[in-house]
Amino acid sequence: MELQLLEHRVRVLSLRKSGLWRCTHPLIKLLLLPQRTRCRFFSLTETPEDYTIMLDEEGFKELPSSDCLQAVDATWLVLNVLTNGCSTTDAQPVGVTKIAKSVIAPLAEHNVSVLMLSTYQTDYILVREQDLSVVIHTLAPEFNIYQEVNGELIHVMHEEASNGFLKPKQVSLTVHPVQSPQNRFCILSLNPDSLPAIATTLIDVLFYSNSSSREPASNNQDLESIRFFAISLIEGYISIVMDTETQKMFPRDLLLTSSSGELWRMVRIGGQPLGFDECGIVAQISEPLADADISAYYISTFNFDHALVPEEDISKVIQVLQKRQESGR
With CB atoms 3.0 to 4.6 Å apart as the test, which of 94, 122, 220, 303 could cross-link to 88 if both were Cys? Predict the structure, then answer.
């Protein structure tokens, strides 16, 4: 298998819901008028707590300076899986579990914190720029790694990239509680040419849904439906995750889904907001699900992580993860 290190240098931010109005114009520009910006990596995810924004440096320039925006004090680099020399954006979605396990687990063992962004097309693995030498040293023995430079892929030499590498100290990993809201989710795509046709609905869902008045999720094992909507526009590809109730607001003939039309349930990771310095959070979900041969999509946000699993597997998933929690105590 091969990994591609993309050119994007990504910033991760939290936008308070009470301050959404301050950023509405630049967010609409980034989402609906991408031709008027130089941003090539943009993701916006709404959760009960806030909006998580992931975007490259060009997109970051579009955002105003505001105390409603909280940015992670780090720049993140993006890894993308290549299959037979081609990006997985060229294929149907297959889920993060089998793709990421061989990458995420070794990185967790070397104390590298990662963020995951699964889309309809592919899975992006975000690592902090300062951890790049550790990432290359860890993965190069098993993977061919290519770096995107001015649109061309250059093979990353293991010896050069690992210069100055120091073996990290082993730390104990925290096993986080999981919750399962009752929503049923769809993972969808959209032809960019059709974006204007859903613009009004998209603006209504993201900015005028009165979702800021909804109560944050509780710590109960089984939650009622929660607010979750994710949209990304990366390298011209659009991916949308929404629940089936929200999907009813959109014209069905424009939204693309897999041939099976599969529905998904969510596993929400973390009883309290997760930290960006902690490693192994993604691994504690992806590894046991991979062992159980259950596919999953994974979306990290500013406060919590979220895995989407096939609806018919949710009971088995909860059992597997509960068993993992008990063994980790």
Answer: 122
